[in-house]
Write a structure and sequence with these properties.
Structural class: alpha/beta
CATH topology: Carbamate kinase
Strand order of the largest sheet: 5-8-2-1-11-13-14-12
Number of domains: 1
Helix content: 25-40%
Number of helices: 9
CATH superfamily: Acetylglutamate kinase-like
CATH architecture: 3-Layer(aba) Sandwich
Strand content: 15-25%
Order of helices and strands: EHEHEEHEEEHEEEHEEHHEHEH
Distance between the termini: 28 Å
Radius of gyration: 18 Å
CATH class: Alpha Beta
Length: 286
């Protein structure tokens, strides 16, 4: 893939969670995005939309369940999920960015055959393959459309709905979607916004924040149950980004938008958790 010609590199931001429900906080975050672009960064915004999906499904009278972090998705549910992500969240973020004077473009994984997926199955403890519906695993990424947009100073805003070779549309875990796309773009920074400051050794103790993790250290953190629950897909997304070409990956608190600008500084004092290659730390920080 030909990289966009920019001095400061690509910053891919994954935005989602309850912070999206607060318009004032979202606007503050998007102001920070505007500042990034003024400093020469090319920004890609990938979003989820769990709260809005829940609202749509509830209005439609559709009950869903989660299997290892993936929403079991029927064909009927898929229609309402796409409405929430593309019709509501994506459109709203594009409008807000454009109001700030930027040139935002709303996309999904389907556009330009950007993301091709294959149907995901869950394997239970007995080893039985379980059908969880229209849930996809990423098979291939063609980021050339994003490259064109970034090279012309547009901000792509990307929802995670993607297509398979079977012609069906699939819902893809937003964290893994964002991490895979960051790798494909060889992003300078992959920034995962969540509801906490980063990965904590003790979730009840803010001072236990882990500021840097080499991806080779992650197995030990799983064994020690430092990485668990909702942090599993987020840390795996960071690992995926690094292994596939992103220079750094970070988890920071999306409820503190001012940290977005701070997070791109190459310092170990960041208020978040940075993931790096096993041999990268000293080189990264000079």
């Amino acid at each position: 893939m030909k990289k966009a010609n920019q001095p400061a590199g690509v910053v891919l931001i994954k935005y989602g969670g309850n912070a999206m429900l607060d318009d004032a906080m979202t606007r503050e975050l998007l102001n920070e995005v505007s500042e990034l672009t003024k400093k020469g960064h090319h920004v890609v915004l990938v979003h989820g939309g769990g709260p809005f999906i829940e609202e749509n499904l509830k209005l439609a009278g559709i009950n869903t369940e989660f299997v290892e972090g993936h929403r079991k998705t029927t064909g009927e549910a898929m229609k309402y999920i796409e409405m929430a992500l593309k019709g509501h969240v994506n459109s709203k973020l594009v409008r807000m960015l454009n109001e700030l004077g930027m040139k935002a473009v709303g996309l999904s994984g389907k556009d330009g055959r950007m993301v091709q997926v294959e149907k995901r199955y869950h394997t239970d403890q007995a080893g039985t393959k379980v059908d969880i519906g229209y849930v996809g695993n990423i098979k291939q990424i063609d980021a050339s459309l994003l490259d064109i947009l970034l090279g012309n100073d547009f901000i792509p805003v990307v929802s995670t709905i993607s297509s398979g070779e079977d012609g069906a549309d699939y819902n893809v875990n937003a964290d893994m979607f964002a991490g895979s796309l960051a790798g494909a773009l060889k992003a300078k920074h992959f920034i995962m916004l969540t509801d906490v400051d980063g990965l904590l050794k003790d979730p009840s103790e803010p001072a236990s924040l882990i500021r840097e993790i080499k991806i080779s250290e992650m197995d030990n953190l799983y064994e020690e149950e430092v990485i668990k629950g909702g942090m599993i897909p987020k840390t795996e997304a960071c690992k995926t980004a690094i292994e596939n070409g992103a220079e750094s990956a970070l988890i920071i608190n999306g409820k503190k938008p001012e940290r977005l600008m701070e997070s791109i500084k190459e310092t170990k004092n960041i208020q978040g958790t940075r993931f790096v290659k096993s041999n990268q730390s000293d080189k990264f920080y000079g």
